[in-house]
User: Fold these one by one.
Assistant:
Number 1:
Amino acid sequence: MPVAQGGDDIFPVVQAARCIGLAVPPACMNDVAANAALLQGYADLLNGFVLPDTCEPAGEYTP
């Protein structure tokens, strides 16, 4: 979903970039904001997944 230049979705991206010392060129800001929104959607999906207390942990990961 495209983000309007200077829209409300841009401000959190600018703040986060400043916090970690990252410079995001203005030409890339819409794409960065769109990717941040996409990743937030995935994070919300995972955070909303309820596991029962009886769920066993996964085994050891071996690549």
Number 2:
Amino acid sequence: MLIGELVAVSGLSHDTLRFYERQGLLSALRTDKGYRRYGPEAAARLTLIRLAQGLGFSLAEIREVLQQMDALQSGSLEAGQVQALLQGKLAQIDHRLAELQTLRTSLSEQLMRACPLRLQAEQP
């Protein structure tokens, strides 16, 4: 399908598709006239990219997952390697959640104390 068709199917802009292509997330063949022609898997790949972004994956991480999935489909990678990558991301999220919980606890404790800024503002 041509880029305009993929835009219509995915709801993404031309610029976004070109950006994803430059980032190695999406690939297109070129026609004789230089138009981009995407394979039938492109729409599903874009859905996966958007899902991964929503789950907190960076574009670099998404590229790595896509490369591993491509290798898995070609038979040059085992499913366990993709699982290991996803488990690593889950561990990062758990670590970040722990950091955020610590920050929340600290902020909550600060709110329980008299705020120095508020006391200064109330004094004449």
Number 3:
Amino acid sequence: MPQNPPSSRSGDIAPSRYPGERLGLPEAGPHSVGRLGRRLGAIVIDWALASLISFAFFRYDQWATLGVFALMQIVFIPTIGGSIGHRVFGMRVVAVAGGWIGVWRPIVRTVLLCIVIPALVWDSDQRGFHDKVAGTVLIRA
């Protein structure tokens, strides 16, 4: 009696050839998963802006900087599709299920992002744990 190959057993997931394939996203170009270089550039811009605002209003308090950073994420993701850094690097945050991202997804995503560790744990689609929990993905615009 022939046995089924390992990838066809119940519960197994076939490996994807590129990040985003399992989500139905293209390999490259518009709507593909935003890669590490763009992500790092975006977070540098966002943190720099938060630092400038913190310096101007709070004499650069680390908690104020984190608060400004979080507020920028929560406000800009549902309104302009991503943070200022995301938009500068041609990316946007979208709901995996489609449609408007809503209000709760940016809040959950941002709280986990501010904890830092969830953002460092990635899956094969290059989605951080903060994106997985929020049901979002960072794509190229």
